[in-house]
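Human: I hope this is not a bother. Would you mind checking the protein record under this note? Thank you for your patience.
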Amino acid sequence: MKEIITLHLGQTGVQVADPLWRLMSTEHNIAIDGTQLPCPNDWDFSPISEMCPEILIGIDCKKTNGNYEPIFQETRDGKFYGRSVLIDPDPETIGRFKRLYDHGLYMSSNFLTSDDSCGNLFARGFMSTASMMRPRICERIRRMLEECDLPEGFIIINSLGGGTGSGLTAALLNTLRIYYKNLVQLQVTLFPTPQATTVEPYNCALHEYKMNDNSCIMLIDNQALFNALTPMRRSSNGFEAVNNIIAQLVSNLTIGTRFKEISEGLISLRDLRFLLHPTKNLRYSSFSYSPFTSKKTYRYDKWYEHELTIDCFTEINQLINCPNIEKTPNLGTCMIYRGNLNYFKAKECAGNYLRQLNGGLQTGVNVCVSQKNTYHLDENNMPKAGNTACKLSTNLALKNIWEKTYNNYTTLLQKRAFLHWYENERMTSCDFDGAKEKLCILLDEYNFMLKK
């Protein structure tokens, strides 16, 4: 049934869990206590249904509720639990989540913590914490996979700035690659802002060095997310709104699998990895989303195939802070549309714009259109339902953020700043030299593709 297991690692991953699983449960008409609701709530807030309530007659509830099995597990007593594991060695993070958000969508055995945090150090997460927690995590994942009919892969939500998100994630995914080499690994990763120059450059470089080459990594950053959620477009800003947008992006990754009957151009995790991982080293891609608009203005704007496509390529809608990303060619692009849209029009709009962007050259593009309306959580201050689009692309402009990381990394390394923290966790100079060399190889490949 192509089940997908979501791994929430570190503080960032755990904080995204609540909006993500509330969103998933809403899309599949499941209450927060894990029970199935009787009516298709997707239509309760639709602008069309407000004007024409008679269209509610004859709705196919099965099509509207979709196929929950890829992301939810149903127990014998009819309860639904998300196929997720929440992992953070800091007990305070997991404890706070349980106090605030632990309701019927999570199994208690899927909360995994330890006695101490990683202290924002890749070395501690990769060495000490991994040696303590990895056996428990792998055992929990093994049991979850045994309950699946045909598992497809993992979605990992993490941050490269922290010790858990960078170090423990790298150690865990390398182990999963050994045991489950046929399962896809897709990472939705929060990248540190360029201004973060304490130990974040070390963590990013070492993560790139130690990670297996099988994982496909989709980068976002807080600065770009806050830029998209500007005061002109929203009445308030905060990390809750940012987490809600990240949840929306993760939801779009699986929309074709969960709503096959009302989707065209189906996109699975394996399709995404094939499209967005063109070479061994170029495995990084970026997100954009459209529209970012308020409830008040949405009803007066027209958001159809052409408008959504153009808006996805504008600078303000890019969710990674990278210069000239809207003007730089893409090696592979995936456009995911949701709402009352036409598949062939959407495919034509996306293809025409990408040919124009790439100077007439044809590059890989995949389009998925799902008739399942996008649902925004109430605190988003965005329209609850409507037409939306999400773009994922292997953009060559991502070279700029890795170039900045390389410069910060070499500056810290020359000064031997904070190295004693890493050396105390049994990391050697060979690790730092290897990370520097790996970044050089990555930048060289970006430069080669840009010249080509």
Q: What stands out?
A: The longest helix spans residues 122-146. The longest strand covers residues 330-338. The mean pLDDT is 87. Residues 402-451 form one domain.
